[in-house]
Each structure stands twice: as C-alpha cells, then as structure tokens.
Design brief:
The complex is a heterodimer of chains A (95) and B (488). Chain A contains three helices and two strands. Chain A is mostly helical and 95 residues long. Chain A has a domain of 39 residues: Histone, subunit A (Orthogonal Bundle), CATH 1.10.20. In chain A, strands 1-2 form a two-stranded antiparallel ribbon. In chain A, a hairpin with a 2-residue loop joins strand 1 and strand 2. The longest helix of chain A is centred in the N-terminal third of the chain and has 18 residues. Chain B has a domain of 304 residues: Alpha-Beta Complex (Amidase signature (AS) enzymes), CATH 3.90.1300. Chain B is built from 16 helices and eleven strands. Chain B has an eleven-stranded mixed beta sheet with strand order 1-3-2-4-6-5-10-11-9-7-8, sandwiched between helices. In chain B, a hairpin with a 5-residue loop joins strand 10 and strand 11. Chain B is globular. Classes of the chains: A mainly alpha (95), B alpha/beta (488). At the A-B interface, helix 1 and helix 2 of A face helix 10, helix 11, helix 12, helix 13 and helix 14 of B.
C-alpha cells in the first residue's frame, strides 16, 4: 500500500505537526507498510457485528452535582510556559 | 547480613516488623544500591530521596501496629503517573518540566498504605514502544545482560525490580507494557482487568486499553500490591467496584481440577524454539499438579495486532492533542502565530515513534478512512472479545508465552516499527478484550535470558490466574538476576 507524500502532509496538518522532507518521505513509506498490514482486517466479515464502544458493561456513570474545591489558580499556572496577570499568555489570535 | 536484592514485600515487611532493620535504614540501603547500579541499568528518571526518607520515618507506627504489609516498603513508579510536586515526564521532552499539582489515585493509595516512593522510572515516550529505547531521557539496560533491552514500555519498572533497586514498582499496560518487560527481565508483571485500577492521574495513551498494574518479584507480592491499588475511584468513571476485597485469598490453594487451554497460535512457528520449549515444560508441570491442559484455537489471534494499532493510535492522536504548548508542557521559542506555536511545540516536543502513532491515528480517524480503519477495528474488537468469552465458558485460564522471543540487543529493531509492533502478538489481544493477565518467569534460554509465560484469565478472574501462577512459582523457583549477570 502506498501513502502519498501529499496525504502525509495533509494528515500532519490535521495533527498539528511539521514534518521535514526527510520525515515526510520516511512516514509515507512507513505508514504505507503499517496500514498495508492492517488491510488484513478486511478479510474478516464484520457486516453483522456491532462496533465495541466499551469493554465493560457499565454506562451512564453519574454523580451528584456538588460544588467542590478546585485547584488554586497559581498552582495550575505554575506549569504554564508563559503567563501574565493570572492568565495563560498566547500569541495574538485575532488579526 | 540482609541481601536487599532478594527482598520481597513479604520478607521485607517481616524484617521491618521484627526490627531487624528500620524503615529509614531500608530506604537508605536501596538508594545505595541505586547509586551503585543505576548508571549502568538506567531505570530511574528522577529520585526523591528527601521525601522518601521523610515518608520512611513516618512509617514506623504503621509497621508496629501491623495494619499494612506495605508500610515502609521501598517502591518506585513509572514516570507516566502523576506525583504531586515530583516531575512527571512520561519519557517525553514535551513534559520535561511538568510538575503535577495532584497525585494519581494508584500512587496515593500506595502512599496511604505506607509504601515509600524512591523515584520515577524510565519508559518509552508516552508508553509507546516495547524496548524503552524511545525514552527522551536515557536508555535502560536489561539486568540479565546489559547489551539487551529491558522490554517496554515499562522497562524502567521491570529493570528496577530485577536489579534490586526497588522491592516492587508500578507499570502501565496498554498492549503488553507491563507483561513484556516483566518477561524480558525475569520478574512478575500483572495487568488487571480493565476498570480494576483507577486511571486517574495516569497520563493517557489509549484510554480504553490502559491499565496500571504491579511489577514484583513474586506472584503473592503482585496480589498484595493489587489489594492496595484496586477499587472504584470517583475520579475515573471507568473504574469499577469489582467486589473482590482480597486478591491473595486462595492463592496458596492447589489449582488441581482447573482447566487450562493453549491456543495453537500461541506456540506456532513464529515463536522462538527455546521460548516454546520452556512454555511447553511449564504446561507439563501444570498437568503434573492436576491442571487439565487442552489444545485449542484462537482464530482471531492473528488479527489482534492490526486492530490494536488502529484503536490505540486513534485514541493516542486524540489524547495527545492536548499538548499544544499553552497550559503546560514544552513550548517552542520559535513562532509567529498561534498555529505556529502549536505545530512547532508539538514537532519539537514529540519523538519519532509518538509522531508516527499520532499520524497513524489521525489518518485512521480522518474523513473518508474512519469507517475503513477505526470502525472496522472496533468491530474486530467485538469479535476478539467474543472469541475469548467463548473460551472462558469452558476453561479457567489460557497459557502461552508472553512474548515470541527473549530480550534482544539494544538498537536491533530501531528503524523497523512494524517488526517492533509484531512482538506484541500475544499481549495486545488481552487489552482489546479487557482481560487480566500475568507474566511469570518460566526459565532461562541458552543465552541466559529469562523467558516469560503468560496466564490469561476471564474478566475479574485475577484470583484464578494468581493462584495458578503462584502454584507454578512454588514448584519452579527462579533465580534473581544478580546471581547470573555480569559483574553488577
């Protein structure tokens, strides 16, 4: 199976990754081989099979809606790469 | 003189209770051992000596009142479990400075039981890999032969126990990441039934497959650790109350009368002859103690890897979308726009294997391919689970090798991702079906490397496989690495 370099670059954009020329060429080859291997699933007839959503038989796990203490703002911001005035600092979003 | 390399939870707890050693002395001895060995082994990413000594000093009262076997026991944790105030890197550059504001439930439960955390353990980046070579930080070496990989992704967890650097450790297992390194390093590794141990605070890789579990020297220790970490947690809605209070219960009872099966696919051509023969010997042992062993077939065994790598990569691509350089983690210095910031931070922060999985997962989830790959894999997942369920109507547990080979040389599979994935052939289907499985050492090959046997149980059948594994261990004592390894 062949995954074109254009497809690789398209997927990389969706995944928010930059790839060098060398990386995208290598990935086009590797993804082709790996996805080619995965084609073997097509030999199984799954027309009447339900896709598994959850491996355990539990659903609708709900809890009481109770207000609880959350983390201190400063503690959370201590891991931020950049912060200002108690907020995460990011580049200008709106031109 | 106490040889700390041989200590188990049971024997160490006894020594502490009899005051043959104080908890602080015990912790200090383990740090001495780490000092001597870890430059070679490379199991640890970070150490927390001051905190550990403080913890140990507090453990005395719990030791005296006999309320917890884990009180004062030195242990260590894979670096993908959050530890408040202690750096948690996940083996990745992108989390290189991350200091979690909270502690994973499994780790805090061990702390409540008095166990003392020595440090955090090396791993493949984001738990993606089978050799621990994908760590951004260091290589971990196999204590039986330091030219060999320790397995992965919990390579640090297995190597630390095998080299006597901790009495037990926690690992995580998404497709074999506890069991395969346990097999390569000659120690015991347990992956519990999905939902048994809370995933709160475990850095997410593939949420529908991830489970935390113990790496130990003995099967009984494995049950002791599981007792402490298992149980419903309101912070993880997929964690469940299993109704099992004591996983050690019945562990000493004979498995006579149990029925086991061996799928022909598990002893096929693809398995190294020496691995096959050791597992066959173990099966003979089971027959000699009254376990009925029958050959059977798992027709879908051959499809598990394909389904696993689609599902796990798809979930990873979604889970890892959160690393964007904004709220925590690595941020690139080089950006002009928000999109630049995202892309550059992620591209500089993630390693090759993680990028490969994100790419595969994003592809499998993308418009036009979703049904052909992701949905198809979820349907095959249903079929694989059904096939296991049918076997467990008839049998108590399944026997096979944990991995098709023993540990291989560092560097051997680098640059060949598909070959690396194929090494997970016997472990991934267990995660796909959400089942419990344990890897137990079952001998050494002619190169002196450990072979691991895997016992798979039905959902919540931990006590059955623990009992069967314990019976095997009692009849087949296994040496510790240092008795045979090279000059450590």
């Amino acid at each position: 199976m062949k995954i074109s370099k254009e497809t690789v670059l398209y997927v990389a954009d969706l995944a928010r990754l930059n790839l060098s020329d060398e990386e995208s060429e290598r990935l086009s080859d590797e993804m082709g081989r790996i996805l080619g291997y995965m084609e073997k699933l097509n030999s199984l007839d799954t027309s009447n099979v339900k896709a598994m959503e959850h491996v355990e038989p539990v659903s609708n796990v709900l809890r009481e809606d109770i207000v609880e203490e959350s983390f201190e703002r400063d503690l959370i911001l201590s891991n931020a790469p950049d912060e200002q005035d108690g907020a995460f600092r990011v580049p200008k979003v709106v031109e | 003189m106490m040889d700390i390399r041989k200590l188990t939870i049971k024997t160490a707890a006894m020594a502490l209770r009899k005051k043959e050693i104080s908890p602080v002395e015990l912790i200090e001895k383990f740090y001495e051992r780490i000092d001597v060995t870890d430059e070679t082994i490379g199991a640890y990413i970070s150490l927390e000596k001051e905190k550990a000594l403080e913890q140990a000093a507090k453990a005395s009262s719990m030791i005296d009142d006999g309320s917890s076997l884990l009180a004062g026991i030195p242990m260590a944790v894979k670096d993908n479990m959050c530890t408040e105030g202690t750096k948690t890197t996940c083996g990745s550059r992108i989390l290189g400075n991350f200091i979690p504001p909270y502690t994973a439930t499994a780790v805090s439960r061990l702390g409540e039981a008095g166990a003392v955390m020595l440090g955090k353990l090396n791993m493949d980046e984001f738990a993606m890999g089978g050799s621990t070579e994908n760590s951004y930080y260091r290589k971990t070496r196999n204590p039986w032969n330091t030219k060999m990989v320790p397995g992965g992704s919990s390579g640090g967890s297995a190597a630390a126990v095998a080299s006597g650097q901790a009495i037990f450790t926690l690992g995580s297992d998404t497709g074999g990441s506890i069991r395969q390194p346990a097999a390569f390093c000659g120690v015991v590794g347990l992956k519990p039934t999905y939902g048994t141990v809370s995933r709160y605070g475990l850095v997410a890789f593939a949420s529908s497959l991830d489970q935390i579990g113990p790496v130990t020297k003995t099967v009984e220790d494995s049950a002791i650790v599981l007792n402490a970490i298992a149980g419903r947690d309101k912070r993880d809605s997929t964690s469940i109350d299993t109704g099992i209070n004591d996983y050690t219960q019945g562990i000493n009872e004979s498995p006579v009368g149990m029925k086991a099966c061996i799928p022909v696919q598990y002893l096929s051509e693809g398995v190294a002859p020496e691995v096959r023969s050791k597992v066959q010997k173990a099966i003979e042992y089971y027959e000699s103690i009254g376990v009925r062993c029958e050959e059977t077939s798992l027709e879908l065994a051959d499809y598990a890897i394909a389904a696993y790598y689609i599902i796990s990569s798809a979930e990873a691509s979604s889970n890892l979308a959160r690393y964007d350089g904004i709220k925590y983690g690595y941020r690139s210095n080089d950006f002009n726009s928000l999109l630049d910031l995202y892309k550059n931070s992620r591209s500089e922060g993630f390693g090759d294997e993680v990028k490969r999985r994100i790419m595969l997962g994003t592809y499998a989830l993308s418009s036009g391919y979703y049904d052909a790959y992701y949905k198809k894999a979820l349907k095959v997942r249903t079929l694989i689970k059904q096939e296991f369920d049918k076997l467990f109507d008839e049998y108590d547990f399944i026997i096979g090798p944990t991995a098709p080979t023993t540990a291989y040389p560092i560097g051997e599979k680098e640059g060949n991702p598909l070959e690396m994935y194929l090494g997970d052939v016997f472990t991934v289907s267990v995660n796909i079906a959400g089942l419990p499985a344990i890897s137990v050492p079952c001998g050494l090959d002619s190169a002196g490397l450990p072979v691991g046997m895997q016992l798979i149980g039905r959902a919540h059948g931990e006590r059955t496989i623990l009992r069967a594994a314990h019976a095997y261990e009692m009849g087949n004592p296994f040496p510790i690495a240092e008795e045979v390894s090279h000059g450590l």
